[in-house]
């Protein structure tokens, strides 16, 4: 069936491509956060272990919301590590960083997601896609707050 939601095919495709990058960043950050949750050590273990768990659980829910928005626009959501590696602006870590380095890397990851989300606004505004704009606003608010909380641990 044709999709007739008041957004052209070309605009929906452009937005879906941007959301695919956001999905890849979010999933990559989820995986990194989960890895750090499992492998953190040191005097801040308990605090970081629990904080990282809260963060990866939120990211797990977010990937579903983003993927479902892509599907709502009529396009397949990427879902493989290969696709995520190609689309994500966040790189995987080799080895197990020290706890403070984990925090710094997660700040960088949170901020990368914000930049990716923010980069979609021009396409979303042209298409008057309020649903995607709302999703982006919510994601930006959450990632900026999480980055601030993580940065606070480094001061």
TrEMBL record:
<dbReference type="Pfam" id="PF00210">
    <property type="entry name" value="Ferritin"/>
</dbReference>
<feature type="domain" description="Ferritin/DPS">
    <location>
        <begin position="18"/>
        <end position="155"/>
    </location>
</feature>
<dbReference type="InterPro" id="IPR002177">
    <property type="entry name" value="DPS_DNA-bd"/>
</dbReference>
<comment type="similarity">
    <text>Belongs to the Dps family.</text>
</comment>
<dbReference type="GO" id="GO:0008199">
    <property type="term" value="F:ferric iron binding"/>
</dbReference>
<dbReference type="InterPro" id="IPR009078">
    <property type="entry name" value="Ferritin-like_SF"/>
</dbReference>
<dbReference type="InterPro" id="IPR008331">
    <property type="entry name" value="Ferritin_DPS_dom"/>
</dbReference>
<dbReference type="InterPro" id="IPR012347">
    <property type="entry name" value="Ferritin-like"/>
</dbReference>
<dbReference type="GO" id="GO:0016722">
    <property type="term" value="F:oxidoreductase activity, acting on metal ions"/>
</dbReference>
<dbReference type="InterPro" id="IPR023188">
    <property type="entry name" value="DPS_DNA-bd_CS"/>
</dbReference>
<protein>
    <submittedName>
        <fullName>DNA starvation/stationary phase protection protein</fullName>
    </submittedName>
</protein>
């Amino acid at each position: 069936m044709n999709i007739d939601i008041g957004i052209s095919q070309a605009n929906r495709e452009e937005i879906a491509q941007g959301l695919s990058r956001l999905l890849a960043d979010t999933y990559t950050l989820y995986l990194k956060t989960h890895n750090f949750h499992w492998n953190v050590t040191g005097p801040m273990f308990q605090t970081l272990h629990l904080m990282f768990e809260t963060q990866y659980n939120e990211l797990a829910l977010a990937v579903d919301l983003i993927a479902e928005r892509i599907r709502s626009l009529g396009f397949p959501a990427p879902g493989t590590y290969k696709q995520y590696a190609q689309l994500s602006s966040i790189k995987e870590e080799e080895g197990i960083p020290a706890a403070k380095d984990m925090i710094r890397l997660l700040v960088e990851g949170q901020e990368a997601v914000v930049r990716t989300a923010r980069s979609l606004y021009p396409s979303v505004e042209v298409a008057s896609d309020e649903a995607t704009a709302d999703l982006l606003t919510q994601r930006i608010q959450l990632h900026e707050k999480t980055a601030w909380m993580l940065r606070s641990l480094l001061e």
